[in-house]
Amino acid sequence: MASTQIFLLCIAILGSSLLLPTNAAVAADSPTPAPLDMESILVKGSQYGTFIKLLKSTQVMTQLSSQLKNTFDGITVLAPTDNAFNNLKAGTLNGLTAQQQSELVLYHILPRYYSFSTFETTSNPVRTQASGNEGVYTVNVTSTSSQVNVSTGVNQVQVTNALRSDFPLAVYSLDKVMLPDELFGVKPPASAPALAPAVSEPKKKKVPATATTTTAAVPASSEAADATTSDAGLRRNVEWGFALACAFVGVLSLF
């Protein structure tokens, strides 16, 4: 009797194992999640044409697709609307180099997943994917239960509705283009180049005025003295000659 019961129990266990699907079978039957398509998400939003063009022209769209396949921290994209780009000053985008346009696009991508609740607890400054050899591009986030604002140092932008909010990719709409201080901040005025010190000419040695006057005066005084002495001798000779002549005439008158 006991052996019969044991036999029937084994049959029941074997039958149940054949009826239950294995884990491998469940995994094989479950649909494979489709790869995340950033372009499709933005196209569905219907007002992000300019941002899509920039993502493609700068090759950032391809970079995002690759990152989303291997990310552990997730990614957050802050997507400006077409109206946000239209409100920029004329020539703003065309005035940027290809490298600067790439940095502007990457400035709108955060290298981790942020939900509205994690925005409230994040620490500032928040690093963006534009950070690299050209510098560290960051933003400051202020958040309440109903609103998220992002400050760049040049302007402040409000995060509005979410186009996608599931990990690993969050995509939020912006009503303005975020302008990084590194590209659009006020630059300090360029300092004037230092002037080379002026080379002064060697000073000429001046001859003292007294020495010049004395040197020139000495010959003149000597010549005047010589002339005076000569005139005095001549007068004496004339006087002596006149006296002798008078004495001689007087002697002759006695005879």
Write the layout of secondary structure elements.
Blueprint: H1 2-19, H2 23-29, H3 38-45, H4 49-57, H5 60-70, E1 75-80, H6 82-86, H7 98-106, E2 109-110, H8 116-121, E3 126-127, E4 138-143, E5 148-151, E6 156-164, E7 169-174, H9 181-184, H10 209-253
Parallel strand pairs: 1-7
Antiparallel strand pairs: 1-2, 3-4, 4-5, 5-6, 6-7
Kindly describe this structure:
This protein has 255 residues and is of the alpha+beta class. It is built from ten helices and seven strands. The protein has helices spanning 2-19, 23-29, 38-45, 49-57, 60-70, 82-86, 98-106, 116-121, 181-184, 209-253, and strands spanning 75-80, 109-110, 126-127, 138-143, 148-151, 156-164, 169-174. A seven-stranded mixed sheet has the order 2-1-7-6-5-4-3. β6 (156-164) and β7 (169-174) form a beta hairpin. The longest helix has 45 residues, at 209-253. It starts with a helix and ends with a helix. The model is unreliable at 24-28 and 211-218 (pLDDT under 50).
